Amino acid sequence: MPASKNRASVTLSRAVYADLFAALRRSASAPNRKVVYLPGNHDAEAWWNREIRNELEMAGLVHELALSYCASFESDPERVIYCEHGNQFDPANTIRDYDDPLDTPLGEHIVTYVLPHLPTGWETEGGNLRAIDRVFPLSIIPEWLAGRLFYQVATQTVRWLLLPLVVLFAVHAILEDGGSVGALLVELVYDIGVLLLIFAVFLFVAARATNRVIRASTSRVPGDAEHELIRGRLEAGEPPPLRDSPTSQIAAFVSGHTHAPSLTHFEAPSGERGALVNSGCWLRQLQPVAGRLGAPPVFVSRYVQTHVRVYRANGATQVELWEHPRPSPRQLRVVERLAVVGRLPAEPEYGASPRVRQRIAIERRQARRSAVKRQVLRIRGTTGLDGSPMWDKRTPSRPGPRHAGSAGVAAGWVALASAHSRAKSATSSQPSCAGRRCARPSYSLTSVMVFDL
């Protein structure tokens, strides 16, 4: 890398990312918009490297950097919306000191030094190892490898053994049999039937062996427990990893990292309910589809493009998980298509509009009703990776409840917030944060949106 360049400037100059950064720049420059970058395990350098931080700010992509952020509504000041990347709940990707350039977790070394050098070519097609970074959660990688190897062996057996034998039987029967055409056909059907039966027995035994390998590997590979770790910490009243003390109850905990979008409830020690939400990702994934007749699962390509929106309406904190449908090309072998015939999920249409995938309203046990009326304002000129609108922005028709919080953007994790332009001073109801490690705003917010890119 040239001495005058850094990782941020090199990435920004790549033509393949031009549309993405243009959309982020338009969004960041929109009126009453604040963007905060929340680094994670893959981009911690953005926190300790001042050059990268300055590059992103000068490019008009980022207004502020923080490791976490918290926001509270003036109508419910005791409860906060808290957000961090989520890698601190993953032992293989935990960073103990973000200010230390040498503190790099094991997962970062695997992504940086192992995955780019995995073998490719037809001889590794069964494992298709270069696509391993599209398999989520990571605990099902053994299942993916075993399944791919099974279908590769089945395909090669059909191509190089079954079909040549069928042709050989047919030619032999034609050359040797001098009888009638009917007798010839009967002999061919019998011989090919016996051959197909032997092949079916072979596939049955191979499928059983593959499933045993999958079950044994799954029992030895630890599952992705980040979601339950977060839930356990919240329900025990313990502070998040990147927050000093639980000064306020959390109404919504937003994280990413696992690339698995979800939205569920949790119950705080006080009995109040909260939302536990994962923002998902903006990637193409390989997801399993159960095979028929005991066949191993087939991993099918699917775009997962989701984001989270949090706002106040009807006296409650509304938490929404949005989905941006996009069709994904599927390159499956004939054997794989036969194994999952009738089970492949339907593909969305091109140009499909973003939609709410799941919604939760968080109300206090003694909820105060809000008289704020809301209207829809479509944000134009901001597009997703597929060129479709990224979202339909909702804002109050007049200044609504005040947030004491901020929003964030990460190279891997993005959150956007709309803010009223008039400045506000910090109040005692705001959560305490240690400097810039936790973003604390001095303005009013109308909503928060979180993306994991």
Summarize the biggest pleated sheet: 8 strands, mixed
- Span between termini: 24 Å
- The helix/strand class is alpha+beta
DSSP helix fraction: 25-40%
What oligomeric state is this?
single chain
Query: What low-confidence regions span 5 or more consecutive residues with pLDDT below 50?
Result: 122-127, 367-412, 420-435
H and E order: HHEHHEEEHHHHEEEEEEHEEEEEE
Note the beta-strand portion. Answer: 15-25%
Shape: elongated
Rounded mean pLDDT score? 79
| Helix segment tally | 9
Rg from alpha-carbon coordinates: 27 Å
Q: Compute the number of structural domains.
A: 2
Using DSSP, what is the number of strands? 16
Can you give me a brief rundown of this structure?
The chain is of the alpha+beta class. The protein has nine helices and 16 strands.
Task: List the SSEs and their pairings.
Layout lengths: L6 H6 L5 H12 L3 E5 L7 H4 L1 H9 L5 E2 L2 E6 L2 E9 L21 H9 L26 H36 L4 H40 L5 H10 L13 E7 L6 E6 L5 E6 L3 E8 L8 E16 L2 E8 L10 H6 L15 E8 L11 E3 L17 E3 L17 E10 L14 E2 L3 E9 L2
Parallel strand pairs: 1-2, 3-15, 4-5, 5-7
Antiparallel strand pairs: 1-14, 3-4, 6-7, 8-9, 9-10, 9-16, 10-11, 12-13, 14-16
Helix pairs in contact: 6-7
